[in-house]
Specification:
mainly alpha
């Protein structure tokens, strides 16, 4: 079961990363007021690489699950999903937004010869607020959908916490039965 859960976690990272990259790149380019296909594709490729790296380096599912558990929340319930979406969004969105805004800022300053009169802080804050709201909604909606798809793919009951609890109970019973046989 643990191996299947690792596969599910490894499958979540690219799915969430690529989906968030597509939508946040689109939103970022639209809110800039200067949407270009080249700008969208460039920001998508860079943010997809960043988000996939984040997904493989930071075990987002484990981190958000541990925080939920430490607060006494049951995974899969609305309060736990709200918190886990916030955690995932907090890990991904600020980094992706910073890089995308920096690219846009650097490009605008280069094209204008430094005369664009842009304030990086204002650009970043404005974009971060919008992308954080959109990213939170994406995490809240897509995490359970992707999790359900991956559970089905790897033949794990949904929600996987139910399967994990059943396995732990079974192992506990086996350990207790083994302890009784040894006495």
């Amino acid at each position: 079961m643990q191996e299947k859960m690792k596969k599910i976690n490894r499958g979540m990272a690219p799915r969430m990363g690529i989906t968030m990259s597509v939508i946040l790149s689109f939103v970022g380019n639209l809110t800039s007021g200067h949407f270009t296909m080249r700008g969208f594709i460039t920001s998508f490729i860079i943010s997809a690489m960043i988000s996939i790296i984040i997904g493989f380096v930071v075990p987002v599912g484990r981190v958000s699950g541990d925080v939920s558990h430490s607060l006494g929340l049951v995974r899969g319930t609305l309060p736990a999903r709200l918190l886990e979406s916030l955690i995932a969004n907090t890990i991904y969105t600020p980094i992706m937004t910073f890089v995308m805004v920096y690219m846009a800022y650097a490009t605008a300053m280069k094209q204008s010869g430094g005369m664009a009169g842009l304030n990086f802080g204002q650009m970043f804050l404005h974009s971060l607020i919008i992308c954080f709201i959109v990213g939170y909604a994406l995490c809240f909606i897509l995490q359970p959908l992707y999790l359900k798809m991956l559970c089905k793919k790897y033949d794990v009951p949904y929600p996987p916490e139910v399967a994990m609890a059943a396995q732990e109970a079974e192992e506990t019973e086996e350990n207790q039965a083994g302890g009784e046989n040894n006495e």
